[in-house]
Design a protein that fits this description.
Layout: H1 2-7, H2 14-21, H3 25-31, H4 36-56, H5 63-80, H6 88-95, H7 99-122, H8 127-151, H9 155-171
InterPro entries: Homeodomain-like_sf, HTH_TetR, Tet_transcr_reg_TetR-rel_C_sf, YxaF_TetR_C
DNA-binding region: 13-32
Keywords: DNA-binding, Transcription, Transcription regulation
Length: 173
Amino acid sequence: MGLIARKGVQGTSFSEVLEAAGAPRGSLYHHFPGGKDELVLAAMDEASRLALGAIERARGQPADKVAESFISFWRTVLTRSGLEAGCALLAVTLGADTAAQRERAGELFKRFRKVLREMLVEGGVPADRAEGLAAGLLSACEGAVAVARAEASIKPFNLVAAEQVRAIRAAMR
């Protein structure tokens, strides 16, 4: 996950995965007989599971706090990695080796949008606004992560994040 988030699919080799895992070559083929495609799909699922788990901790809070929690997750990814890591799902979307990888990314992004929408509604955003705000929050953060990495600065991420929170606060009942 970390290698894909830093280097993308094409930039990540089996050798690097083995080195990072401290595993013998045979174990990779044993656990992932489908090769790199199967490994990438598994990494995407794990990245999604971890991120959704972090977001779910904000369930039941006001919508602006849900947004701040989602933003905080991405800010932490950026700062802990020294602005080197982004979203593994976005990396796969932009450089998928197979249609299955791109399709899985789409499924997982839909899941994120659905969870964010539900949590925004629970937190006080009208249902007719929640899907657009959830899509905006997800898309804005994904783009802001990429821009922050490109500029080697957290500033663009923070600017986008502040606007997303303001928009969600304005929509709250």
